[in-house]
Amino acid sequence: MIDAIPDKISRKFKEKDQFDLNRNSQYYLLPFRFHRLTDEKEIIVNEVGDYLILSNGTFESIVKRKLDKEKDKDLYGDLIANFFISEELIPPLIDVLATRYRTKKLFLNYFTGLHIFVISLRCEHTCHYCQVSRVTQNRDLYDMSLSNIDKGIDIMFKSPNPHVTMEFQGGEALLAFDHIKYAVEKAEQIAIEIGKGLTKVICTNLALINEEILEYCKEHDILISTSLDGPKYVHDKNRNKPNASSYELAIKGIELSRKLLGHDRVSALMTTTKLSLDYPTEIVEEYFNLGFQGIFLRNISPYGFALRTDTSKYETEKFLAFYKKALDRILEYNFSGYHFTEDLAKIFLTKILTPFNVGFVDLQSPAGLINGVIVFNYDGGVYATDESRMLAEQKDYTFKLGTLNDDYNDLFFGRKAQEIAQLWANEALTGCSECAFQQYCGADPVHNHATQGDMYGYRPNSDFCQKNMEIIRYLIELMESDSRIKRIFESWAKTATH
Amino acid sequence: MQFQNEIKSNEVIVFADASLYSKDSIFKCLYWYGDKFHTNVSFADSGTYRVSLKPISTNQLSNLELELLLQKLERDLIDFNLRDIVTKETQNVRDLLIAKAFSNGEFDEMPPGNVSDPVGFNVNKVAND
Ligand code: SF4
Hints:
The structure holds two protein chains of two kinds.
Chain A: E1 28-29, E2 32-36, E3 41-46, E4 51-55, H1 58-63, H2 73-81, E5 85-86, H3 94-104, E6 114-118, H4 139-142, H5 146-156, E7 163-169, H6 177-194, E8 197-204, H7 211-219, E9 222-227, H8 232-238, H9 246-261, E10 266-269, H10 280-289, E11 294-295, H11 310-335, E12 341-342, H12 343-353, E13 373-376, E14 381-383, H13 386-393, E15 400-403, H14 408-413, H15 415-421, H16 445-452, H17 463-481, H18 483-496
Parallel strand pairs in A: 6-7, 6-13, 7-8, 8-9, 9-10, 11-12
Antiparallel strand pairs in A: 1-5, 2-3, 3-4, 13-14, 14-15
Chain B: E1 6-8, E2 11-17, H1 23-31, E3 37-45, E4 48-55, H2 63-89, H3 91-101, H4 123-128
Antiparallel strand pairs in B: 1-2, 2-4, 3-4
Helix pairs in contact in B: 1-2
Bound molecules: iron/sulfur cluster (SF4).
Iron/sulfur cluster binds next to helix 17 of chain A.
C-alpha cells in the first residue's frame, strides 16, 4: 500500500521561486583558495581542484558577502554548484565532495608501486653532468649482488600494491644484463605464485642493445625506457661516449627496439641541460620526427647546482622561457591535427580538468617518495627516490631509509620515513597551505633539501615553486585565451586518464 | 590616530588596523617577501600594526620600484587577509570533508530532510514495501 504524506504538499507545478529555500542571500564559505592571474583576472580553486576564473575583485565580494543572489545569479549559481559556497553550514552534498576528494587522493590507496633496482653503477658513457656512474670493470664492487637482488624482490612483493613495477637503472643497466635476467625470472615466478601484477622496465642508453637482448625483452614483456636529449648536436654534447656518437647509437637502438618489441614498447626521456635551453623547438621536432607521441620537458636537474642564488632564479626563468617556446611548437603540431603531447602539462591538466589525479613522485601530495617509489641501490642501500641515491653519491645520506637487510616495516614506516612524512604534504607547508594551485602541485622534500639545504623548503625562492606556479598559471591562461587550446588540453587530459 | 603608508629612506611602511587585519594574515603575507627584504612587524599603537620592508643589500631598488613595492604590499595584505578569513571560516568543514574522504563510512550521513516524490508519495515507505 502506498501512503500519501498528509502534511506534505506536492511541489509539482509551482512557480520557479517556490523551489528557492533561501531567499535572503545568506551563504557560508566552503574551503577554496585564490590567486591573481593577471591584472584583470583572478582564479579560485576548491578543495577538489575545480576552478572558476573571475574578474578582479570578485574574490573579495564573495568573502565579504557582497554577492547578491538575484543580481549575480549566474555567478552565485556557479559558486553553489561547484562547492565554493553553500547555503547551509554543512553542505547537503558534502558526501559527494568527500568522494571526489577521495578520488583525487586515490594514489594513496595502493602504496609503493615503482621499485627501482640500480642494477649496476658501471657505465660506458662519461656524461659531464652525471656524478653517479663509474667507468670501471669492477663488477663485484659496482653491480648489485644476486643476494641483494633476492632481498629487493622479497621487499617489493611485500608492498600492498596489487601491481608492482620493477625498473632497472644504472649506470648503464645493460652492463649487468645477466643480473637483470636473474631478477626478471625470479620476480616473474613469485608474481605468478602470489597473484600480483608485475611490469618490468629497463632504462638504458641503448648503446649495448642487440637482437638477443631484445628477443629476451620480447619474451618477458619488458619495456624499454631510453634517454634522448634532442638532436645530435645537443644529445652528443650532453652525453659523451668515448669514440662513438651516443645519439647515433640511441637512434639505432630505438629503431631496432621498435622493430622487435613494437612501437609503443619504447619510450624516451630527455634531460634538460644548459645547452638544451637554446634549442626548444629543435628538441620538440626531434621527438616528433622520430614518431613519439609526446615529450616530457623536464626541469634542469638541480644536483650539482647551488640553487639558492640569483643564478638559480635565472636558470628557472630560462627554463620557463624554454618550456613556453617548446610548448608553442607542440601546440602548432596539434593545430595541424596531430596528437602530440607535453607530459608535464598533461600531468597538470589531468589534475586541473578531470576528477582524477596522476601519481607522479614530486607532483603529488603526500609526495610519491616511499608512497609511490622506492630505490634499491647497487650496494644494498634503500633510498626514498632516485634523486636521494644521487645525493648519496655525494656523501649525503639524508634520504637513506636503511639497507636491504632491514625489515620492511623499519624501511617504510621507520624513523626516517616518519621524519620525511612530517613535510611531504603541501597542504601543511608554509606558503603552499593557502596557494590556489596546491591541488595541482605537490611536495618534494628531496628537492628542497638538495637545493635549499632543508627538507621543509622555502617557497619564495624555491625553483620548484617558481616553475610549477608559472607553468600552471600559463596553462590556464592559454586555455582561457583560446578555445582551440582548451580543446587540445582536454584531449591530453582525457588520454592521461584512460 | 591616523597613520599614513609611506616610503622612508629605502623602507616601505604600511599600517594595518588590527581590528580588520589578522596577525596570521600579516605574517603569511610577509613570508613571501623574506627572500629579498628584511621584514618587520610592530605595533604603531595598540590598535595598529606597522609592517615594513627594507631591501636586503643585494637588492637595490629605484624610487619607482619602491613605489610599486608599496602598492604590491598594500594589495597583498588585503589578499592575505581575505585568504585568512576563508581558511578560518572553513576550517571545520574542511576537517569534516577530509575525515569523511578517508573514513570507511563512519562519517556518512543521510541527506538532510525528507525524501519525497514530487507527486507526494512517501518514498521510504514505498521502498520498504
Ligand atoms: S610549491 Fe608553490 S606553486 Fe606549488 S603549492 Fe606550494 S606555493 Fe603553490
